[in-house]
Amino acid sequence: QVQLVESGGELMQAGGSLRLSCTASGRTFSSYAMGWFRQAPGKEREFVAAISWSGGFTYCADSVKGRFTISRDNAKNTVYLRMNSLKPEDTAVYYCAAHTPTSSSGSYYTFQHEYDYWGQGTQVTVSS
């Protein structure tokens, strides 16, 4: 079992920067691929960024590529989402998620059904 707790969300002005954190319980965090998703009001939850268990592979959605960076610190059981050049359309609840490793696990995952554990979310609001 993995429990995930996101933090760092707040009200920001457009153009600003913010770093979200997601801290996991459990001793096996370093074996889990992790991801960030977001859900804007009235919209479906969507993929934002993903990272492999080692941190060696990362991938970001086109909508945030070049502005957002995902990283992790396995010694701290934490995955981060650095968000630069924030836009009003980045306003959403941001969720982190963990993929349980299997013998056939790949590097990272972009679909929600590939993740087994989810945090409660943290609100990011970007004003224009």
Q: Which blocks of ≥5 consecutive residues have pLDDT under 50?
A: none
- Note the total helix count: 0
Q: Element order, helices and strands?
A: EEEEEEEEEEE
Gap between N and C termini = 40 Å
> What structural class do you assign from the helix and strand content?
mainly beta
- Tell me, briefly, the overall form: globular
Secondary structure tally: strands: 11
What's the average pLDDT? 95
Radius of gyration: 14 Å
Residues in β-strands, percent: over 45%
Profile the largest sheet. 7 strands, mixed
Helix content: under 10%
Structural summary, described in words:
The protein is mainly beta. The chain contains no helices and 11 strands. The chain has strands at 4-7, 11-13, 18-24, 33-39, 46-51, 58-60, 68-73, 78-83, 92-99, 117-118, 122-127. The strands form 2 sheets. Strands 2, 4, 5, 6, 9, 10 and 11 form a 7-stranded mixed sheet that branches. Strands 1-3-8-7 form a 4-stranded antiparallel sheet, with no helix packed on it. Strand 7 and strand 8 form a beta hairpin. It is globular, with a radius of gyration of 14 Å. The model has no long low-confidence stretch (mean pLDDT 95).
